[in-house]
Amino acid sequence: MERIFKAAKASGFEVFISPHYFFPTDKGWKMNGPLEADEFETGTFARSGVLSLENFENSGADWLNSFKPYIEDGKTIVVSPHKVFGNQTNDLTLQLRKRQINKIVLGGMLANMCVESHLRELLEQGFEVCVVKDATAGPRHPVWGDGYQAAMVNYQFLAHAVLSTDDVVKAMS
Question: What SUPFAM superfamilies does the record point to (predicted)?
Answer without folding.
Answer: Isochorismatase-like hydrolases (SSF52499)
